[in-house]
Structure formats: structure tokens, C-alpha cells
Write a structure and sequence with these properties.
Helices cover 77% and strands 0% of the residues. With 460 residues, it is an all-alpha fold.
């Protein structure tokens, strides 16, 4: 047990802090991974909960689908931007404090969404809610690095990533049923309930896992003297550090393997949102004309692919890393994770996209394009898990910062996808859109061969 607990409101937490978080029992670690994954699911549900209800929201506010999709895009934009500061705070103030505060804010902001009486008000509160809950995807990956040794992180990150990716699977199902019965505002009350539950779960069961940083006595004395001599300049400097320091994480993009992992992850995430937006628009329109709840159920095969990809991808990644450590005389080589598993996953993703795109365009029996979504889900989860674990392993001292860069860029991809999917489907049709995505996917497969040859250790 930690002699001096440092977590926010640590007295109410049932699980006590340890000096070395690696020493938590396996059952406690599983519980914490579940909490991290559940926390990661909540903001993802917030983005996907609109899909079955877009037509109802557009009718309620007397606008079109493009405007409603803006709320999804801006939500994703805030989910990408705010983790820059959440990760900075989590590295200095701790994981628990960031989690507890951010999910309380998420719950409160969703009350504003549920009570919105205009599109502008809805978009504003959606941006705030997305920014608040965005902490989970950045801080969660860092916290998993706090409690698991490198050779166990792949499997743990596989389970963790199920949350952010199952959110888009589950949300349309619940949202479709709620929208059909009580209207679109009930979907926001669902987020309020889930957000409140997550807040309480973290308050009572999530201990602080960040190891305290030891600041040299000389530096502490200089900082205290600076504060005493010129308080105004001191606080101005503190504010400047808070605002600008998170952007220093972009320096990590100087490493080729780091850039490759982030942009491959982001490409997959943007493609995911293009596919989800296409499903919502395609199957609610002629000749399918499915109801909101039936459209929501069509996301299940994609989610099943995520589950299987999680079970396979994380363990495969850990096995590859163990093999590499053995072959390198016990030396840790994070790039070793980017091996045959990534090639296999990339081929499956490309196959799933081309199958979905052309069979959906030709309006074949609904089951055929849905096979494509399953393949895409399976392959993309393996890519997400492997690249995320690689980023965490590469930057052991800046785990949350590394993940925040990944979150920022991939959410920018998702935001753009939310803006352009419907116009692109109308302009070039679904088949050609997903053909272009498949070509880009093949280019990433080719890039992997080059990156493996460069093989510069991302940790510097």
C-alpha cells in the first residue's frame, strides 16, 4: 500500500493505491481494465448514438442531415483536441483525478444536450461533452501501461480497445429503440445515465496508478523562490505551460515508425466512421427502408468482428514481442509488434471494405455487405490494438502524451469522415468511395515494409 496516497478523493476509493501498480492482483487488474474499457465506451457511444436518430433530429430542428452530421463531426473534433490537455494533467496530477472530474463534466454537459432547443445549443453542448469524456481514451491507455509489464500490454490493450469500438456497435441499437419509442432526446438521457454510472464507478473503484514524480530539491527551491519574488510572472508562466506544453507532444512525430503507427491507426478510425455513416444513411433509405432499431442491429456484425479481433490481435502482438525479445538477447524492441499480424489485418480490412462498398452500392441482400463490416471490424481492431500498444511501449515516460497525439489525429480523421461521407456517397457512390479507401489501405501495407527496414527505435 502507498504510504502517502495521492489520488483525488482517495479516501472514498475501495481499492487502495500501491507503491508499485504492477503488484495489483490479476483480478484487480481485470477490474481496472474493465473500468478503463467502459470509460472508453462512453464517449464512443456519444458519437454513435445519433446515427439511428439523425432523421428525427433533423425533422425536430427543421434542418437537413448535413447540419446534423456537423454535430457528430464537431463532437469528434473535441474528442481529438481536448485529450492533449487531459494527458498533460494526468501525467502531473494523476489518472484518477482526471477521470473523476471529466466524467462528472460529461454527465452535466449531456443534460444540456437533452434540453437543447436549437441546433446551435445542441452542437455547443455536444462539443463540451465530447471534450470532457475524451480523457478516457488517452488516460486509459497510459493507465494500462502503469499496471501491466510490456509483454502483457497487448492483451490488456485488446480488451481496453473493445470499449471505444463496441460503443459504436451498442449505441445504435439502444438509440434506435429509444428513438422509436420516445424520440431522440431519450438517447441523450441514456448518455446521462451511463455517464453518471461511470463517474460513480471511477469514484469508488479506481485507485491512482501514476507513480509519483520526484522533483529534485534544488528545482523545488528555485520554483518557490520564483513564486515568492514575482507572483504575477510565476502564474503567467504556469498558465503558459498548461496551455502550450501539451503541444510539445507533437515532437514525437519525428520518428518514422511513430508516424506510421499513428496514421495507420487514424486511417482505420476514419474508415470506421465512413462505414458507420454509410450504414446509417444507406439502410434507412430505399430500397431497404429499415427502421431505426433494425438499422441499429446492423452494427452488431461489426462489433462481433471487434470482439474476435481483440481476442486474436492482442495475444498475437504479445507473442510476437516475446519472440523478438528472445531473439534480441532480452532487449525490448517495440517495432517488433509491427509484423505479420499487421499485414494480415491490413489484407482483411481491405477485403472487408471492397466487399461492403460494392455490394452496398448494388443494393444486394443486406446480409452480403454486412459480411464486409464484420471483416473490417476484425481486421481494424487488430490494427488499433497493435499500434496503440506500440505507442505505449515506445514512450514509457510519456505514455499518455503518445496516446494523446494518436487520439488527436485519428479523431481529426473521424471528424472529416463525418463531414464528407454523405456528400461523397452522393457524388461518387459507395462502391468507388470504398475502392479509394482500399487503395489507401494497400499503400499502408506497402509502407509497412519500408518502415520495418528503417526500424528506428521510437523512444529515441
Amino acid at each position: 500500500m502507498r504510504r502517502v496516497p495521492i489520488g483525488l478523493l482517495h479516501r472514498v476509493c475501495i481499492i487502495k493505491e500501491l507503491e508499485n501498480p504492477y503488484e495489483y492482483s490479476e483480478n484487480v487488474k481485470r477490474l481496472l481494465v474493465f473500468i478503463f474499457a467502459f470509460g472508453g465506451m462512453v464517449p464512443a457511444m456519444g458519437s454513435a448514438v445519433f446515427y439511428p436518430a439523425v432523421h428525427s433530429i433533423a425533422a425536430d430542428f427543421h434542418t437537413d442531415l448535413t447540419v446534423i452530421n456537423l454535430s457528430v463531426g464537431f463532437y469528434m473534433f473535441s474528442m481529438g483536441l481536448f485529450p492533449m490537455w487531459w494527458s498533460f494533467l494526468s501525467e502531473s496530477l494523476g489518472r484518477r483525478g482526471v477521470y473523476v472530474i471529466s466524467f462528472l463534466m460529461f454527465t452535466l454537459f449531456n443534460i444540456g444536450c437533452a434540453r437543447a432547443n436549437s441546433v446551435i445549443m445542441l452542437v455547443i453542448f455536444r462539443v463540451l461533452a465530447g471534450g470532457a469524456a475524451a480523457s478516457s481514451q488517452t488516460v486509459g491507455a497510459g493507465a494500462i501501461g502503469d499496471i501491466y509489464v510490456p509483454t502483457e500490454r497487448g492483451k490488456a490493450n485488446g480488451y481496453f480497445y473493445l470499449g471505444p469500438l463496441c460503443g459504436p456497435m451498442l449505441a445504435p441499437i439502444f438509440a434506435g429503440a429509444l428513438n422509436d419509442r420516445w424520440g431522440w432526446r431519450s438517447t441523450q438521457y441514456l448518455l446521462i445515465i451511463i455517464g453518471g454510472f461511470t463517474f460513480l464507478m471511477m469514484l469508488f473503484f479506481l485507485p491512482e496508478t501514476l507513480r509519483p514524480q520526484v522533483i529534485p530539491l534544488e528545482l523545488q527551491e528555485k520554483r518557490a523562490l520564483k513564486k515568492e519574488n514575482d507572483r504575477l510572472r510565476f502564474y503567467a508562466s504556469e498558465f503558459s505551460d498548461f496551455f502550450f506544453s501539451p503541444f510539445k507532444a507533437f515532437r514525437l512525430l519525428k520518428y518514422p515508425t511513430f508516424v506510421y503507427a499513428i496514421f495507420y491507426n487514424s486511417f482505420g478510425y476514419g474508415s470506421l466512421y465512413m462505414m458507420n455513416n454509410t450504414i446509417a444513411d444507406l439502410f434507412a433509405s430505399p430500397p431497404y427502408n429499415f427502421s431505426s432499431i433494425v438499422t441499429g442491429l446492423l452494427y452488431l456484425p461489426n462489433g462481433l468482428g471487434y470482439v474476435l479481433g481483440s481476442l486474436v490481435g492482442g495475444r498475437w502482438s504479445d507473442r510476437i514481442l516475446k519472440r523478438a525479445i528472445k531473439n534480441n538477447n532480452g532487449k525490448m524492441v517495440p517495432e517488433a509488434r509491427l509484423a505479420e499480424n499487421m499485414l494480415t489485418a491490413g489484407i482483411v480490412v481491405c477485403g472487408g471494405m471492397i466487399l461492403f462498398g460494392w455490394t452496398a452500392w448494388k443494393h444486394l441482400f443486406w446480409f452480403v455487405p454486412i459480411i464486409g463490416t464484420f471483416l473490417f471490424g476484425f481486421g481494424s481492431l487488430m490494427i488499433f490494438t497493435t499500434t496503440l500498444t506500440f505507442l505505449v511501449d515506445s514512450m514509457p515516460q510519456r505514455r499518455s502524451a503518445a496516446v494523446s497525439i494518436n487520439t488527436f489525429i485519428r479523431c481529426m480523421f473521424a471528424a472529416v469522415a463525418s463531414f464528407v461521407t454523405v456528400p461523397l456517397n452522393n457524388a461518387i457512390r459507395t462502391g468507388w468511395l470504398f475502392t479509394i479507401l482500399t487503395i489507401l489501405g494497400i499503400m499502408f501495407l506497402a509502407l509497412q515494409v519500408y518502415v520495418k527496414k528503417v526500424c528506428i527505435t521510437s523512444a529515441g
